[in-house]
Design goal:
Keywords: Hydrolase, Metal-binding
Strand content: 25-35%
Order of helices and strands: HHEEEEEHEHEEEHEEHEEHEHEEEH
Strand order of the largest sheet: 1-2-6-3-7-15
Number of strands: 17
Protein name: M20/M25/M40 family metallo-hydrolase
Pfam families: M20_dimer, Peptidase_M20
GO molecular function: hydrolase activity; metal ion binding
Structural class: alpha+beta
Number of domains: 2
CATH superfamily of the largest domain: Zn peptidases
CATH class of the largest domain: Alpha Beta
Distance between the termini: 32 Å
Organism: Clostridium aciditolerans
Shape: elongated
Helix content: 25-40%
Largest sheet: 6 strands, mixed
CATH architecture of the largest domain: 3-Layer(aba) Sandwich
Length: 355
């Protein structure tokens, strides 16, 4: 099977749950094994991980792809070609990228490679990646450069914002709803604090790839009846901070506004790969070699499994085929971009000897 056929077969597998995601791993294991590649299967907390390594040398390039998908509507597990696009859940995010990586490994297996190439197929990226990519990185499955095959329109996502999610508590004084001036409305206190947070120094900072961090007022929970001034409110923020920023400093500034009733829900590091990293430059050269276009190099606002390798100061990027509407209706991948993506990966690997 070529990379398009592999993509179609993967789309047919309902990998929105653990059992199905593991079934997708089994499919890839059988395919790679039939093509003479040695497979290492790892299981962590019930999640299957496939690792396949080819080549020799001191350097190692990691190709990381996830096979799990988000929920889908009826008909989205039936791959459908139309106007040069392949529709189906996971077509762009990111079964086409994983399929191209598999095809590249098969086509490179008999080549004399200048480095090791390690394919990592994982099953929990959509739910955080803790059981697979994080586990792999922590267990030493690391290299010199990591490509996560998220859909990027054949551009290179070199950085990603960090994540700081916080819950804040606000206390007021209850009163009858007809006399709000006799109470202290905790919801209003929360929102006024939110407006002050939007003016803090960290919100005005920018970097090479980002104009500013982002702050989402995600939840506001308070009040229970119409005729009572609420005396308690919980406000939750989702903050995506710049790679150069420190979440502890952001937290300090927020506490200066709302006091100590700030609780961290979640923190994830930013991805800090440099635009001028040698592997990013090599990847850019391969993109130009294959499609004769200078790639867009940008920073992602969300994060992917790249974060787990960046933690160990390994340059990691998001780079994948072209498509649209992932996590939404009518998700598709541009068919021609799957083949281009596979050839770019091969060109990168084969030309690393010039590094």
């Amino acid at each position: 099977m070529d990379c398009l056929e592999i993509t179609k077969e993967l789309i047919k597998i309902d990998s929105s749950n653990l059992e199905g995601a593991n079934a997708a791993i089994d499919f890839c294991k059988e395919l790679l094994s039939k093509n003479g590649l040695e497979i290492k299967l790892i299981e962590n907390n019930g999640f299957k991980i496939l690792v396949c390594t080819i080549g020799e040398g001191e350097k190692k390039i990691i190709l990381n792809g996830h096979l799990d998908i988000v929920s889908f509507k009826e008909g989205q597990l039936t791959p459908n070609e139309k106007d040069g696009k392949l529709y189906g859940r996971g077509s762009a995010d990111m079964k086409s990228g994983a399929a191209a990586m598999i095809a590249a490994m098969i086509e490179l297996k008999n080549e004399k490679l200048p480095c090791k190439v390690e394919l990592q197929l994982v099953t929990d990226e959509e739910t955080g990646g803790n059981n697979c990519s994080k586990y792999l990185a922590d267990m030493g499955f690391r290299g010199d450069f990591v490509i996560c095959g998220e859909p990027t329109q054949l551009g290179i996502g070199v950085q990603a914002k960090g994540v700081l999610q916080v819950d804040m508590e606000f206390f007021g004084k209850s009163a009858h709803g007809s006399r709000p001036w006799q109470g202290d409305n905790a919801i209003i206190k929360a929102y006024k604090s939110f407006e002050k947070i939007l003016e803090l120094p960290f919100t005005k900072e920018k970097s090479e790839l980002y104009d500013c961090p982002s702050i989402n007022l995600a939840k506001l929970e308070g009040g229970d009846v119409y005729n009572k001034v609420p005396d308690y409110c919980k406000m939750s923020l989702d903050i995506r901070f710049l790679p150069e920023q420190n979440f502890e400093e952001i937290l300090r500034q927020i506490k200066g506004v709302v006091g100590e009733k700030v609780h961290i829900h979640s923190v994830n590091d930013a991805v800090k790969t440099k635009v001028d990293n040698i592997y990013v430059r090599k990847l850019s050269e391969s993109i130009r070699n294959v499609i004769n276009t200078n790639p867009q190099v940008f920073g992602q606002h969300g994060s992917a499994d790249t974060v787990y390798y960046s933690k160990y100061d390994i340059p990691a990027v998001e780079f994948g085929p072209s498509g649209a509407n992932w996590h939404g209706d009518d998700e598709y991948v541009v068919i021609d971009s799957i083949y281009k993506y596979k050839n770019i990966i091969k060109d990168l690997i084969l030309n690393l000897k010039n590094n």
